């Protein structure tokens, strides 16, 4: 067993590793992360997770519900630390898994992965308390500076494979004219809700069936990647890419490529594009609005529609906001909030969710990787030609509750949540 | 979360550090009753409140030179931004109700303002309000009564004795009388009564029961002036009693001490600050979390909504008017835009959703009964008509 595997085993048991090992781990993680672009490309299938906030036992519950690393491919959208009592155990475990299985777990930065915020919201204090000095906090903050700002999920399937028997069906039962679009499962794996959409005929279908809409020659390859050519993305199963980012959009960012231009290796600034990506929230407004958080912006449905259209995205997945049901789709499914910290702060009574995006097998499982320069192939024509609407990816939400405290090796002393007394 | 609240994992491995209560004081031995233990937990909640107040003061949310003297030493802790903001809203909202009751706002009726008035604070504990009022630039003409467990009073009186700043606020030293055991204080403007509120509930309605002056309840009766406009404050106090006891305490004032039949009866007001909405996910978790600390909010389900609080006030004799608003509403509507900007600038509050959740689970409710002089001070205040 390697040192790394030993460290993983130890952290899984919620036991910390020595400071010297943390230092080494953070060094290795930085070497890995420095090679990643600001926007990491991730192939489906992948399980997208929201805020963790140091709720270690709930992170273990997440792995139980979603599958373990490396069997399941994970993408965590930041806010690993602060608020909960086990930020160190949670973040160091995720970091160990990243170093051990770099292609099976992606970590992007949240607004709490910052020196300033962690001194207010608990991670700094936790480091001092558990290690006796600020060294480990400093090592971790250096890693934070190298975390990617976003991820692009490619090759997600439009249709879900049904999981099993369906309860509380909201649509007609499955038939040839409908395909499964979303499915919600509880932590036992029972389907609690499903939605369907009309099946679209693809060019591979029986030729006698006329297409449901005019076919327009496709300019791009795999959506969202900017790749040109005709080799990929057969019409009909064409889903856009899914942009994953902690907070949301920025008035300074109109293309995914602009995210790639940011110099990210720094503390999260108080304003500007990098700050907005980590701080902004979608809201039922037109255009842009001021954020009550004091950083980032509010953005409305029109902003999301334009951004998704321009960038060949079918969905933005983000975290950052507590949602009591664990996930919340907005703006006709153009954006979803995924929240993965159940009973947040041991106080809020919410459930958590993770989002599974399946793999599109229709083109043989190959996905064109991003070449990182969107629109180079045909910048002029693309604005003149109406692109066909993209199909959103099939979305499977697994909803789970907080880990039962006394049965999973949690300390007998329950964390104390503050109230007004 | 502050460092002192983060469990040290090493202590868990050794199996230590279990079941420690956060309460302070209490001198009962190991054979004490479970009621005694419950009382100590309730007494300890005062500590919680004073630590929160000190945190909000330290960060500039509130101005309160007395907060530090009335918080047990060594307890200073920086609370989370949402807790600080909640402490701020709770304190300033009640300050405003008090100021309007006293007629000390600029739009107050001058003849009302001149009247001497009385404030009775239930379960006051380490509250600083009396000191803030007595040292304000134009001190109101008031007499202030606090009623609490003897053990909480003793801690407060000890602090007063040891702090010139607090003593000076109460006037001449020779005017202050403190009981032998140090749990009662009497001065021309300020009284601290060592009375378990439940004993008042038991005496409610019994007009023939006139306790001896040596009895703390007798002292209370003796020192209260039933001809003054009177405001009763319950900041997270009655909620710990059973519904019958809580109603009994209120009845003791509305019927036994201040019967409306008294031709000299003046305005009688009640301000409540309490948690509400125990039935949703946040509320259920709150009830469960507090239960693990041994805290039972006994009237919470009885008065679970703003409407229930208004109805309670109406039914318990405050028929002049009743209103209620949750802390989220009070922040949005009672705090001016400039003040909001100032407060928001003190700390970055990255917990908007959690703030709303938390703030919607606490309310201030206020109601009054008219006396021989008309009281308009609260009519202009905006209550919350729709449940949040």
UniProtKB/TrEMBL annotation, chain A:
One Pfam family per UniProt: Metallophos
Gly residues composition-biased segments: 223-234
Source superkingdom: Eukaryota
Keywords, comma-separated and alphabetical: Hydrolase, Manganese, Metal-binding
Entry EC no(s): 3.1.3.16
Reactions catalysed, as given in the entry: O-phospho-L-threonyl-[protein] + H2O = L-threonyl-[protein] + phosphate
Keyword Metal-binding appears in the UniProt entry: yes
The UniProt record lists the keyword Hydrolase: yes
Cited SUPFAM superfamilies: Metallo-dependent phosphatases
InterPro entries in alphabetical order: Calcineurin-like_PHP, Metallo-depent_PP-like, PPA2-like, Ser/Thr-sp_prot-phosphatase
Biased composition, class Polar residues, residue ranges: 197-213
Region (Disordered): 197-234
Residue ranges occupied by any Serine/threonine specific protein phosphatases domain in the UniProt entry: 108-113
Similarity field: Belongs to the PPP phosphatase family.
Identification of the protein by name: Serine/threonine-protein phosphatase
Source organism (scientific name): Aspergillus lucknowensis
UniProtKB/TrEMBL annotation, chain B:
Biased composition range(s): Basic residues: 15-24
Database matches in SUPFAM superfamilies: S-adenosyl-L-methionine-dependent methyltransferases
Reactions catalysed according to its record: [phosphatase 2A protein]-C-terminal L-leucine + S-adenosyl-L-methionine = [phosphatase 2A protein]-C-terminal L-leucine methyl ester + S-adenosyl-L-homocysteine
UniProt GO BP: methylation
EC number: 2.1.1.233
Domain of life according to the entry: Eukaryota
Biological role stated in the UniProt entry: Methylates the carboxyl group of the C-terminal leucine residue of protein phosphatase 2A catalytic subunits to form alpha-leucine ester residues.
Protein family: Belongs to the methyltransferase superfamily. LCMT family.
Name of the protein: Leucine carboxyl methyltransferase 1
Organism this protein belongs to: Aspergillus lucknowensis
């Amino acid at each position: 067993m390697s040192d790394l595997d030993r460290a993983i085993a130890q952290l899984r048991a919620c036991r910390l590793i020595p400071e010297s090992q943390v230092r080494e781990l953070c060094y290795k993680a930085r070497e890995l992360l420095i090679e990643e672009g600001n926007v990491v490309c991730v192939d489906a299938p992948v399980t997208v997770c929201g805020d963790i906030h140091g709720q270690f036992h709930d992170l273990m519950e997440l792995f139980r519900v979603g599958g373990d690393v490396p069997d399941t491919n994970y993408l965590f959208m930041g806010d690993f630390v602060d608020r909960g009592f086990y930020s160190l155990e949670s973040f160091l475990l995720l970091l160990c898994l990243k170093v051990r299985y770099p292609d099976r777990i992606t970590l992007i930065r949240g607004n709490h992965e910052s020196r300033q915020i962690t001194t207010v919201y608990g991670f700094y204090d936790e480091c001092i308390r558990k290690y006796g000095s600020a060294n480990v906090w400093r090592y971790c903050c250096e890693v934070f500076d190298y975390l990617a700002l976003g991820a692009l999920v490619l090759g997600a399937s439009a249709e879900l494979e049904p999981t099993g028997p369906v309860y509380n069906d909201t649509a007609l039962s499955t038939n040839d004219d409908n395909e499964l679009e979303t499915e919600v499962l509880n932590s036992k794996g029972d389907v609690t809700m499903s939605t369907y959409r009309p099946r679209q005929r693809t060019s591979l279908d029986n030729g006698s069936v006329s297409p449901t809409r005019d076919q327009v020659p496709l300019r791009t390859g795999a959506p969202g990647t900017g790749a040109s050519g005709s080799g990929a993305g057969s019409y009909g199963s064409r889903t856009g890419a899914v942009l994953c980012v902690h907070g949301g959009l920025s008035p300074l960012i109109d293309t995914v490529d602009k995210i790639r231009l940011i110099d990210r290796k720094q503390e999260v600034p108080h304003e500007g594009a990098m700050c907005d990506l980590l701080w902004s929230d979608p809201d039922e407004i037109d255009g842009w609005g001021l954020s009550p958080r004091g950083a980032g912006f509010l953005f409305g449905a029109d902003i999301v529609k334009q951004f998704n259209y321009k960038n060949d995205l079918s969905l933005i997945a983000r975290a950052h906001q507590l949602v009591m049901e664990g996930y919340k789709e907005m703006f006709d499914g153009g954006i979803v909030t995924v929240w993965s910290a159940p009973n947040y702060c041991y106080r809020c009574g919410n459930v958590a969710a993770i989002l599974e995006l399946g793999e599109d097998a229709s083109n043989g499982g190959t996905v064109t990787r991003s070449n990182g320069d969107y629109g180079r192939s045909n910048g002029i024509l693309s604005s003149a030609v109406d692109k066909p609407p993209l199909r959103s990816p099939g979305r499977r939400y697994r909803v789970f509750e907080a880990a039962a405290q006394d049965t999973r090796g949690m300390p007998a002393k329950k964390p104390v949540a503050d109230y007004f007394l | 979360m502050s460092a002192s609240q983060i469990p040290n994992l090493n202590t868990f491995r050794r199996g230590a550090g279990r079941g420690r209560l956060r309460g302070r004081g209490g001198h009962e031995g190991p054979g004490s009753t479970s009621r005694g233990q419950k009382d100590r937990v309730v007494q300890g909640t005062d500590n919680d409140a004073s630590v929160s107040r000190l945190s909000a003061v330290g960060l500039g949310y509130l101005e309160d030179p007395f907060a530090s003297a009335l918080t047990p030493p060594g307890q200073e802790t920086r609370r989370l931004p949402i807790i600080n903001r909640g402490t701020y809203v709770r304190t300033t909202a009640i300050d405003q109700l008090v100021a309007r009751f006293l007629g000390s706002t600029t739009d107050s009726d001058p003849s009302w303002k001149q009247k001497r008035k009385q404030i009775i604070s239930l379960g006051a504990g380490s509250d600083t309000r009396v000191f803030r009022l007595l040292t304000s630039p134009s001190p109101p003409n008031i007499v202030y009564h606090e009623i609490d467990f003897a053990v909480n009073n003793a801690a407060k009186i000890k602090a007063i004795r040891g702090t010139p700043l607090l003593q000076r606020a109460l006037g001449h030293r020779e005017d202050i009388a403190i009981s032998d055991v140090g749990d009662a204080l009497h001065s021309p403007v300020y009284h601290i009564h060592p009375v378990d509120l439940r004993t008042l509930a038991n005496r409610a309605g019994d007009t023939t029961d006139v306790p001896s002056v040596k009895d703390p309840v007798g002292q209370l009766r003796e020192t209260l002036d039933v001809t003054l406009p009177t405001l009763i404050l319950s900041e997270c106090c009655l909620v710990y009693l059973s519904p019958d006891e809580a109603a009994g305490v209120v009845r003791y004032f509305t019927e036994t001490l201040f019967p409306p039949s008294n031709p000299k009866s003046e305005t009688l007001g009640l301000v409540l600050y309490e948690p509400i909405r125990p039935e949703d996910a946040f509320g259920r978790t709150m009830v469960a979390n507090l239960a693990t600390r041994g805290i039972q909010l006994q009237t919470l389900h009885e008065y679970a909504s703003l409407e229930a609080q208004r109805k309670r006030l109406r039914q318990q004799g405050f028929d002049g008017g009743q209103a209620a608003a949750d802390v989220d509403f009070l922040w949005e509507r009672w705090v001016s835009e400039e003040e909001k900007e100032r407060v928001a600038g003190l700390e970055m509050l990255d917990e908007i959703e959690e703030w709303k959740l938390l703030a919607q689970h606490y309310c201030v409710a206020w109601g009054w009964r008219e006396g021989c002089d008309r009281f308009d001070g609260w009519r202009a205040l905006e209550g919350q008509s729709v449940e949040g």
